[in-house]
Amino acid sequence: MASPAASQVYIIDASDRDHAIETLWRETGSPMLRGKTVAVKANFNSDDPFPATTHPDTLEAIFRQIRNAGARSIMLGERSGMGETRTVLKNRGIIDLAERAGAEVVVLDVLESDGWKAVPPDGLHWKRGFLIARTFSEADAVVQTCCLKTHRFGGHVSLSLKNLVGTVAERDPRDGYNYMAELHSSPHQRRMIAEISRFCPCDVAIMDATQGFSTGGPERGDVIAPNVILASTDRVALDAAGIALLRLYNSTPEVMEGRIFEMETIARAAELGLGVRSAEDLRLVALDSESKELVLDMRRILDESA
């Protein structure tokens, strides 16, 4: 497949989260949301504070932008892989936050069969395909916010592409088949992660990199503090930029070695036409003077790995 037109990843200093997210929202093109149903995928995989999970202030600022854009309704859909989802959301303060923002919380763990859309295995590395929540597959628009993390259980990184694993059923409600057991035991795990995004649209993705994990992950690791937030309409470009950012902090061997666009998740996503296919097609855009030097360092790393 031909590479799409060059994609922009916007980067801004995160000292003022509200200002940063408002600016990123505007620069990415402010998706047309008036009268639409919007599904939001944050990162609440475990009952741990940021940067293991989405910072509440980031989520609140995103809700505000969606509401200001005239959305008819907002749904926050989540499935925690390392905890009971509703308990995680309650303990993180997200149930109350969503209520204040007028957003409906959809706990994906308890969805019945009709809440899932079956994706067939044709052309995929999933043995019998998978189930994706209709919350996301049928929404008028999808917004997601991810963290900047490595992943020690085979994913290597947990960025925007990996974040969408939480839109897939852990088990089939009909026969109990365990999709997550298949994913985590497969030699194709990272390719399978990329394949989810083919069936889950995303209008804009925001990566909160005010802090992150340079090793370990997803729930704990060595904390770094880039103090920036990134956003793009292209998840492949965003994740490639996130990997370049992790490389600045001497991350794990799996992150540090090789060409970024040859890493399995990135390569498979690009192959499926989900975003840019090379570092040359990725544009990093610093939105303020504070992030300009960091962006130059990230650009150098992308060029060196091209």
Features:
single chain; about 300 residues; alpha/beta; Rossmann fold; ten-stranded mixed beta sheet; two-stranded antiparallel ribbon; 12 helices; globular
Q: What would you note in describing this structure?
A:
Residues 38-243 form the DUF362 domain. Pfam families: DUF362. This protein is an alpha/beta fold. The protein has helices spanning 17-27, 56-68, 85-91, 94-101, 134-137, 160-163, 179-185, 189-196, 235-247, 253-256, 264-271, 292-304; strands at 7-13, 37-41, 73-78, 103-107, 116-119, 130-133, 141-151, 156-158, 204-213, 223-224, 228-232, 282-286. The chain is built from twelve helices and twelve strands. The strands form two sheets. Strands 1, 2, 3, 4, 7, 8, 9, 10, 11 and 12 form a ten-stranded mixed beta sheet that branches. Strand 2 (37-41), helix 2 (56-68) and strand 3 form a beta-alpha-beta unit. The longest helix is centred in the first third of the chain and has 13 residues, at 56-68. The protein is globular, with a radius of gyration of 18 Å. The mean pLDDT is 96.
In short:
Residues 38-243 form the DUF362 domain. The protein is α/β, with parallel strands linked by helices.
CATH architecture classification: 3-Layer(aba) Sandwich
How many H/I helical runs? Answer: 12
Question: Which superfamily, in CATH terms, is the homologous superfamily?
Answer: LarA, N-terminal domain
**Mean pLDDT reading:** 96
CATH class placement: Alpha Beta
- Secondary structural class: alpha/beta
**Strand percent estimate:** 15-25%
Shape: globular
Strands, total number:
12
Radius of gyration, taken over Cα atoms and rounded to an integer in Å: 18 Å
CATH topology: Rossmann fold
Order of helix and strand elements from N to C terminus = EHEHEHHEEEHEEHHHEEEHHHEH
Query: Residue share in helices?
Result: 25-40%
Tell me the number of structural domains.
Answer: 1
